[in-house]
Structure formats: structure tokens, C-alpha cells
Amino acid sequence: MAVSYALCFLPDGEDPDTLVRKEGKEAFEHRLELAQPLSTFLFDTLMPQVDLSSPDGRAKLSTLALPLITKVPGETLRLYLRQQLGQKLGILDDSQLDKLMPKQLETEQSNYQPPQLKRTTMRILIGLLIQRPQLAAQIPSIQGLEQTGLAGVELFIELVNTCMAQPGLTTGQLLELYRGNKFSQQLETLATWNHMIVEDMIEATFLDTLGKLYDSVLEQRQEELIARDRTHGLSSEERKELWSLNMALAKKD
Length: 253
What we know:
Organism: Budvicia aquatica
Strand order of the largest sheet: 1-2
Largest sheet: 2 strands, antiparallel
CATH architecture of the largest domain: Orthogonal Bundle
Number of domains: 2
Enzyme class: transferase
Helix content: 55-70%
Shape: elongated
GO molecular function, one term: nucleotidyltransferase activity
Pfam family, one: DnaB_bind
Strand content: under 5%
CATH class of the largest domain: Mainly Alpha
Oligomer: single chain
Number of strands: 2
Order of helices and strands: EHHEHHHHHHHHHH
EC number: 2.7.7.-
Number of helices: 12
């Protein structure tokens, strides 16, 4: 389950127990409602220390923020904070932030081993879409995909619809939409998955994998009609459909 973080500062010498006894439960809960989200506190604290109008100021902000962001627990929150930092620095490509990372921190991160996952059809499609939500615009249609019954296809369809409904979504924003959802941990893992696909081949791999998924839908329907023909026979419409499927699949051989 995803966790959100907020900061609530208590008076000196007080802890939650003593403050509840002194102020009462309702007053303490009101304090909690006013707690600052971690992202707000982080940048509200750092921004007064830098001048973003100068290159040196922007470099200083990255030097101050990146080591702190790296220590934040939760992949979703780290991605969100990095994207917030990128927006303040005018850097849209999240990967460019790594070039601003202090050398010591860069060395520490180089020891990080991303999750090793088996490459499956749905894992490739969902993983690439999470990492590049703009790929949703390349999908011609998702009609009929639910018929495959493959594990993950319903999540993929949902993600495509979400990305299409909100063009321009970033990875962090997409993960934030699923915070606390039953898929949140799975999506966080895929967001950092090293799929070993070179940069120039990502879009082609995504579309090729999607094409194979479409083919599996056609093959599944073809098998259903052939089985029905053997047991109950087909109507004229079903025979036309089977003929069309045979022709379509024959062209792919």
C-alpha cells in the first residue's frame, strides 16, 4: 500500500500524547489537518536559499534537493519529487536530472540494482506505458483486447484510457493516481524496471508487442469458431467472420 507523508511541527518539549492532553483531541486533529505535504515543505525550505534566475542558483537547488529526494522512502514519492524539481529547473526530461547529481550521490546510486523481471507481453506493455505515458497516443484501438483473458490486460486498458483522457501525464502523476490502489506496488516496480530495450527501439517494441496482442485476440476468436463449427455448426455470419479471420492471420504468416 502506498504511503503519503506530511509534516506537522509540535511546540518545543511536546509530543502527541502531551499535546492531546493539553489541547484536546479535536485541536490536535486540526493540527494534523494543517500538516504540510512533504513536497511542499521540501521546496518551501530550499527555494529561499537559491536564485533560480542564474545557472549557479539552479545548480545549487539540484545539489541541495537530489540527495534529500534520494533518501525519501517510496518510489512513487521520489519520482514525484524529482519531477517537481525538474519543473522548477526547467528540465522536462527526468533522466537529465542525474547529470546534475553530486558525484558522491551518483556513486551511491550506481550500486542500486533495479528489479529483475521476466519479460512478458503484458509486462512490456504496462511497463513501457508507465515509463512513457505518451505512448498511449500511438495505440490505434483497444477494442476487443479484454477478450484475451491475459493477466494484466484489464489494467493495461485502464491505463490507456487514463492516459488518453489526460494527455501530458508524467510517470509520477500517473503513479500518484494509483496511490493506495491494489496495483500501486506493481506499477511502482514497473516504473523503475530495467527492460533492457534501447531508447531508439522503445516505441517500435511497444507497437510490435501490441500487434502480437491483437493477433492473439484474432487467433483466440478463430479457435472458438473452429471449435463451434465442429460441435454445433456455424451460422452464415460466423462463417464469413471465420473466413475473414483466416485471411487476416494468413497475411501475417
